[in-house]
Amino acid sequence: MALFRLSSVVLGFAASGVFLPLTALAQVVQTPYPVVFVTQMPVPADFTTITAVFGNHRGDLSSAARGGDIWIRYGDGTLKNLTQAAGLSAPGMQGASAISVRDPSPSWDASKIVFSAVVGAPSKRYEVKTYVWQLYEMLGLGQGDTPVVTKVANQPLAFNNISPVYGSDDRIIFTSDRPRSGEMHLYPQLDEYEEAATVTGIWSLDPASGDLALLNHTPSGAFSPTVDSFGRIIFTRWDHLQRDQQADNDNEVARTGTGYSFGTFNYSDETVAAQKLNIRTEVFPEPRADTPTVSGLRFNQFFPWMLHQDGSAEETLNHIGRHELAGYGAQSFLDDSNLVYGFSATLAKARLLNDAMLQIREDPTQPGIFFGTSAPEFGTHAAGQIVKINGAPTDNPDTMGVTYVTASATATSSSDTGAAAPDHSGLYREPVPLSGGQLIAVHTSETRADKNTGDTATPGSRYAFRLMLLQADTSGLFKASAALTPGISKSISFWDPDTLVSYNGPLWELNPVELRPRVRPAKTIHAALQAPEAQVFTEEGVDVQQFRDWLKSNDLAVAVSRNVTLRDKSDKQQPYLLRVRGGVSAVPKSGKVYDVSHMQFFQADQVRGIGGTTQPHAGRRVLAQLMHEPKAANAFTGVPSAVAIAPDGSVAALVPARRAMTWQMTNSQTPVVRERYWLSFQPGEVRVCASCHGINQKSQTGVGEPQNPPEGLRQLLRQWKEGRTVSNDDRVFNWAEAKFPDQLLPKSPTSQMTQGLRYRFYSATNEYLGVKDGRVLYFKPGSMPAPTDVGSLTQYLNPALGEGF
Asked: Which residues span the domain enclosing 756?
């Protein structure tokens, strides 16, 4: 259906406002293809507004002022207002049909664009309505064409849908604040930092069928997805897996009796009928404040991530991480001299100066080279320094380097009182490398943080965001040079809703994209199993597709690791002298050695409320809760929500799909190594991380990625073949291993069968524990002449069942 009924438009005359003359330009920049961009009335506020780093998805008028347009700049510099040509916008009073537009993205053949628009503004003072961003497509982009706009069918109608791009199969990939489960009582999801509304992840829609899929669940948000030349979805993700700072504040207020309380509290669960509990309990990760032996964890990054188009294989770009990109990281334990503060092994490389790479776009002339913006969180509208990084699928994180495209001074704003650094050339955002080798970006010459230079009724901004050609100076660093437009001005008024807001002046030029045909890459999907895991499936006689189909039908995935004692050589912030008692170990030097016995899983539940239990604010923040999804019930081995680490260091666990998950290695109940990121899985996914933390080239012991067929996976498949019912024999074995921590080592060896005897052999302690004909047998060669009958199976099964085994 059409966005609006098209009105009569006279094309080709500058006076109509559809085409804009270029006489104001000193020189006309020629580009190989047209550039599509949007104009936006300046919004000087920079917290959860349209140009903010996060929370920029809201459709209210204070976040996204009305009156913007979609423009096209043809290769010769001619400008055309596409939304005005389609009859969708006009200057002056912005009422019920007013629009704001954002995020244009071309189809593979460049015949159309998909974009987001929010429609409507109050028609009178004090009129309060809800406005959301929705997806639209536009055809007719030629100079002589009349653009035609249609709304994308079958999208989530009650939610903000932004940043759309076309997938390889023409599905529309976008971000949305639709709740993970679609349940309105969980709306909106609140981020982990300010408890402000955020998008829930990246979604994929087939408009024809209405098939809608959540590709990843992101507790604090995912931004600006794009499909690269290799078919991967590349995006920025906000990673803030730490405890709630508002709750910490409230705990201090409760302790001292003074200060402002945010009213944080816990819901009993995610349901609509959940109890509002006057508690703020959190269980993961460690607290934000230091203790005498544990560093407080404060974690805040906007790194490049990648994802297959079916939602599988979510990870940082090529598994690059904070050791290669970030500025610092504290050691987890303060009483272990082997753990260090900072990333000394990789500090020689250039870093992301703000721990951020935003608005990522691939260079069409160099596939696998990505440009982006490293910007502060606040004050500059996500504008800062332009950087680039090599990230083709074959690039190893150890050889991926950040390159500064603009001067490092541009990474931050200058002070209001002092002079800017001599090489500070202004602030940049949304770099777009063109197919002709040119680089364009949005730029303001202002170096200070923005502020409202007017007032609520007549706002003004220090920033004049313009589309600019960038050129290198004698140092090789790029600076803004020629403008791509003569500047676009408009007179705009609207109710917001109490105040009549008026603006007459230059508009911001944002969201540029090159309108050119591109080679459609193959759709990336769940990869075939690698040899070690395929070997286990073959040896156990399990059909991989049948197993994956069962996972899909139960909305489950499997997380597999081959040897969790191995860690990348650069990671010296968490324990890396690790040992599975009686099994594998990775102890390359002297120092404190940590035993690890279990991998414990946590799921992201929206159970943190804010605003008090009497009249809480809408929405909930996620908290890491012990995994409790009933369908993901793994065999209990003594630690809640955990699976035992097999003697070879491997792990395999059923986990819920399409929900953010994280985990930690423990020694029984004691945390040892914690995951620092949330990850989500797709139904049917068998996800293998060979080690923890993943190895770039060499581990802490000097070896590469482990290739052992994981025994943990073998145990999971055997349990699955038995109908996911843990045998009574195995329940007793698991119980005995927990009861005798210094015997029966290594823990959790694979159970064997011979001549009616089911048994486990504990190689490190040379012990056997078995069951035959309802009797439990124990044997330690060299210490006794023959197996000893230690009692009936029932005698041991009853306490095992009573303790949850």
From this structure: 728-802
Place of tokens 């969708």: 88
Q: What is the pLDDT of residue 12?
A: 29
* Boundary of a domain, candidates 721, 736, 770: 721
Q: Do 562 and 479 lie in a common domain?
A: no
Residue (of 66, 90, 69) closest to 7 by Cα position? 90
Cα→Cα distances 633→16, 558, 726, 750, 805, Å: 66, 12, 11, 19, 12
- Cα distances from 770 to residues 636, 715, 721, 788, in angstroms, run 19, 17, 21, 10
10 Å CB burial of residue 348 (0-12, 13-18, 19+) is exposed
Pick from 353, 369, 370, 352: which is nearest to 361 by CA? Answer: 370
Cα 465 from Cα 96, distance rounded (Å): 27
Shared domain check, 540 and 450:
no
Do 700 and 777 lie in one domain? The reply is no
Question: What's 98's domain CATH number?
Answer: 2.120.10.30
Q: Distance between CA 119 and CA 88 in Å, rounded? A: 10
Beta bridge partners of 514: 35
pLDDT tens digit sequence for 238-266: 999 999 999 999 999 999 999 999 999 99
pLDDT in tens, 128-152: 999 999 999 999 999 999 999 999 9
pLDDT, tens digit, 9 for 90 and up, residues 635-665: 999 999 999 999 999 999 999 999 999 999 9
Can you tell me the distance from the alpha carbon of 405 to that of 400, in angstroms, rounded to the nearest whole number?
Answer: 15
Task: Classify each residue of 386-401 as buried b or exposed e, where b means 16 or more C-beta atoms within 10 Å of its C-beta.
Answer: bbbbbbbeebebbebe
Q: How far is CA 742 from CA 582, 738, 746, in A?
A: 10, 9, 10
Task: Summarize the confidence of residues 363-380 as an average pLDDT.
Answer: 98
Q: Is 665 in the same domain as 681?
A: yes
pLDDT at 346 (0 to 100): 52
Establish how many alpha carbons lie within 13 A of residue 68's alpha carbon, considering only the half-sphere containing its beta carbon.
Answer: 28
- Whether residue 464 is contained in a domain is answered as yes
> Do 358 and 239 fall into the same domain?
yes
Of the residues 670, 696, 721, the one at which a domain ends = 721
Phi, psi (degrees; rounded to nearest 5) at 733: -60, -50
Within a domain: residue 526?
Answer: no
Which of 681, 678, 651 shows the shortest CA–CA distance to 665? Answer: 651
In a domain, 267, yes or no: no
| Distance in angstroms (rounded) separating the CA atoms of residues 7 and 94 | 16
For the cut 60, the answer to whether the pLDDT of residue 600 exceeds it is yes
What was the pLDDT predicted at 433?
99
Are 154 and 210 in contact, with CB atoms under 8 Å apart? Answer: yes
Spatial distance between the Cα atoms of 645 and 562, rounded to a whole number of angstroms: 10
Residues 708-728: what's their mean pLDDT? 92
Three-class DSSP labels, 92-142: EECCCCCEEEEEEEECCCCCEEEEEEEECCCCCCCCCCCCCEEEEEEECCC
Domain count along the chain: 3
Same domain for 85 and 142, yes or no, is yes
Residue 403's DSSP bridge partners are: 388
Average pLDDT, the chain: 94
Q: Are residues 626 and 733 in the same domain?
A: no
* End-to-end CA gap in the chain: 58
Single out the residue of 467, 477, 506, 472 nearest to residue 29, CA to CA: 467
**pLDDT, tens digit, 9 for 90 and up, residues 309-322:** 999 999 999 999 88
420 lies in the same domain as 301: yes
- Does residue 104 lie in a domain region? yes
Sheet holding 69-73, edge to edge: 19-20, 79-81, 69-73, 35-40, 508-514
Q: 398-452, pLDDT tens digit by residue?
A: 999 899 999 999 999 999 998 999 999 999 999 999 999 999 999 999 999 999 9
What residues contact residue 484 under an 8 Å CB cut-off, 6+ apart? 29, 31, 35, 73, 77, 440, 466, 467, 468, 469, 509
CA atoms of 248 and 389, how far apart (whole Å):
37
Percentage of the chain lying above the pLDDT 90 cut: 92
